[in-house]
Amino acid sequence: VIKKSLLFCLFSLSAAPKDYDGLVVRSATKVTSDIINAASNLKIIGRAGTGVDNVDVDAATKKGIIVMNTPSGNTISAAELTCALIMSLSRHVPQAVMSMKAGNWDRKKFMGAELYGKVLGIVGLGRIGKEVASRMQSFGMRTIGYDPITPPEVATSWGVEPMSLEQLWPQCDYITVHTPLMPSTVGLLNDETFAKCKKGVKVVNCARGGIIDEAALLRALESGQCGGAGLDVFIEEPPKDRSLVNHPNVVSCPHLGASTKEAQARCGQDIAQQIVDMVNGKNLVGAVNAQVLASTFSQESHQMIALGKALGAVLQSCTSRNPCNNLRITTQGKKYWSNLMV
């Protein structure tokens, strides 16, 4: 139980939060193993946002510290920015704006293309991917997608055609990625995958820097294999290498996916409520290292877990081919007996 206080840190930790039981951070704050190991009282780390790659989850797990995020707080904001970048790439909006501000009037230079009838490949069909699909379908785009977790029938119900990555790459006019950054997704779009895509494919990344191999993307842009990129995230933020940012076919933003008033408020409210609910034993949402939770349950919770297992065994027996012939229930106290219905 968190008995003391909660530290809400927006930017950086100058020293280990030794006296705090809880820590809430945003994406810019790095919670390293050194900070975790020095924080003797820390019991929970809350990430007010989705990605937890700025938190050393392994170090927290080893110390029995719960790490949780707010999986839905910035969903709408990130989806809307993704759609904005797709539209910007199709009509060269940022480049045309800068040209106008420079005193030019060049209509031919910024000839665009309609989104209607084009194919959008969505890699990652979680909350954000789903919202992007519904919005771009309104523009008449055909949406196809890949996700190793989302059942095909669920994706189909959203109007997304599920398929493998090998099937997806060559069909797309636009590709947007919405996956967490993990070993299996680092460099997901690379020289090999770009070669499998349509010539001139446009890509968008509002998820995490590193999912698209930046060097491979630059080579694809230079060769024309990639016709444009909308980037809100980078491997290094801010990026010291400006090659991608300065490329004429790249529209870039300084990690604005969750930078709306609504998302900021929602993430803050969500993480605060999640922590309160967990401490009070009401609910558990957003825990990314559930394996540490057994040590945090109260004695009463352990009893309820045992009861749940027993009830599950009873239900399994009742629905099996050889069900039990009789059932004996032992209760204690008038409270439980009065609420028991057989």
From TrEMBL:
Pathway recorded for this protein: Amino-acid biosynthesis; L-serine biosynthesis; L-serine from 3-phospho-D-glycerate: step 1/3
CDD domains, A to Z: PGDH_4 (cd12173)
Domain D-isomer specific 2-hydroxyacid dehydrogenase NAD-binding per the UniProt entry, residue ranges: 84-257
Chemical reaction(s) catalysed: (2R)-3-phosphoglycerate + NAD(+) = 3-phosphooxypyruvate + NADH + H(+)
Source domain of life: Eukaryota
Signal peptide: 1-22
GO MF terms, alphabetically ordered: NAD binding; phosphoglycerate dehydrogenase activity
E.C. numbers: 1.1.1.95
Xref: InterPro entries: D-isomer_2_OHA_DH_cat_dom, D-isomer_DH_CS1, D-isomer_DH_NAD-bd, NAD(P)-bd_dom_sf
Keywords (A to Z) from UniProt: Acetylation, NAD, Oxidoreductase, Phosphoprotein, Signal
Pfam family name, one: 2-Hacid_dh_C
Domain D-isomer specific 2-hydroxyacid dehydrogenase catalytic: 16-289
Enzyme class at the top of the EC tree: oxidoreductase
Family under the similarity heading: Belongs to the D-isomer specific 2-hydroxyacid dehydrogenase family.
Assembly and interaction partners: Homotetramer.
UniProt-recorded name of the protein: phosphoglycerate dehydrogenase
